[in-house]
Amino acid sequence: MPDNRKTIDGAVGEGWKGAWLVQAAQPNPNSNPSPKGQLLSIRKRDAVGGTGSGWGALNKAIKALATFCSLGQMPLFIPVEIIIHILSYLREQPQPIRQNTLYSCCLVSRLWYSAALPLLYEKPYITGANFDGFTRAVCPSVQAYAPRGDLGRFVRRLDFSKLVHSLTTSLTTRYLGELKTNVEVFIAPASGFSAINLVTLSKCKKLRSIDLLHVIRKIEFEAIKKALQHLDNLRRLRLPRRTNITMVASHLSWPPNLRTLEISGTLDRTTILTFDWPPKLSSLTLAGKALKDPALIPAVLNNSYLRTHLKSLRIPYETHYTPQHAELLLHSIPNLHYLSIQGDLAKPPFFHTLASLPWPLPLEILAFEQSQGFPDFSKEDFLHALDGGLRNLRLLGLHESHPSKLRIVSDDELDELLRRNAQRAGHSLDKIESGDIPVGVYHFG
């Protein structure tokens, strides 16, 4: 009997890259009958064959199987457990490719349809090209005829970030009202969201993550805090760029389990001294205009609660800071496990400060983000820092705009130093080599 696992793994190993246009359509009437309802159908646009690892063989095999069934042939029976196992390979794939393949799965047979349909709508890839069709399928108007069987119940992630002018505030309200029972992640569009929508958003009790970063209309901080205060499952919140924090609003409570917060609007220096931070906050991003005045760094980070509880801090490049500001961060937040700052602060003085610390920081991950300049440090600078304050460091992140050829020290040299450092910190060599404990240089965009 053939080894199914090897067959599937072999299919997954072949390459395929492509861009897809998604539209709403009925199931193919010539295919093996599927339950009546609208699906997300895909026509290929600009598909390119790839080499190396990818999804070509699996995608082609499923398409071939769907074609086989559409010709009236008797489909091969596959136990539902095997189908679910095949579909599990698609969960972490890029959304356009994943959506295309899942649609093909729905055309194979009733059994494949029932297994693939929930995944097809779980985290839909929504663009301006497929938005109208998706609306008819998931959130039709009262007058619209849409035989669908409540497809909205499958939606867990509602991402409107790729829509420019497709949404209005009333349509956003309708979406949130229709999907409020099960939606867990909401990413707001640039337009089509305002303070009016906060009322409906507050009724989505299963929300774990809310991203309002790109909202164009100004929404007051107090209004957001008031609307979200009873979302007990909320873990992550990105505030709009135009939401400034000019009042403490301590009379309003934060969502009780909020752990990750991103602020991009202006911070008022006098307000921030007495600011009421979320009680379980462990990860903070200060972007945009939040630290436009570098004097705000001590005002924010000398807060006694943040000094004790904050584990992750990200300050992406927005305003040019000096090495002195980076050194100030090291003294202000002694309990960080993750720190991300602009790349051109990675100069010898920064590492000299780290080397001179009398105790090792718990910092395990240090990342250098996009900046006007480039990281400029030697192998010796980094080694001395590892012997000082960076004894627990195991990962160094470098933005893709910082190519290795423009740096004095290579990725290979940094990898070796970080490997030794991780072993010295007590991490098992077997777990390091197996990848169970990530160690070394990583690049991000």
Overview of this structure, please?
The chain has 445 residues and is α/β, with parallel strands linked by helices. Among the domains are: 4-122, no CATH class; 311-445, no CATH class. The chain is 34% helix and 14% strand. It is built from 17 helices and 13 strands. It has an 11-stranded parallel beta sheet. Strands 1-2 form a two-stranded antiparallel sheet. Helix 15 links the parallel strand 11 (365-369) and strand 12 (395-399). Helix 1 packs across helix 2. The longest helix is centred in the first third of the chain and has 15 residues, at 56-70. The protein is globular and about 70 Å long.
Query: Strands of the largest sheet, in order across it?
Result: 3-4-5-6-7-8-9-10-11-12-13
Would you tell me the structural class of the helices and strands?
alpha/beta
Mean pLDDT: 81
The run of helices and strands is: HEEHHHHHEHEHEHEEHEHHEHEHEHEHHE
Q: What can be said about the biggest beta sheet?
A: 11 strands, parallel
Percentage of β-strand residues: 5-15%
Task: Using the alpha-carbon principal axes, give the shape.
Answer: globular
User: Radius of gyration in whole Å, from Cα?
Assistant: 25 Å
The quaternary state of the protein chains shown equals single chain
Supply the number of helical segments.
17
Unreliable stretches: 1-54
The N- and C-terminal alpha carbons lie at a distance of: 45 Å
Number of strands: 13
In percent, how helical is the residue content? 25-40%
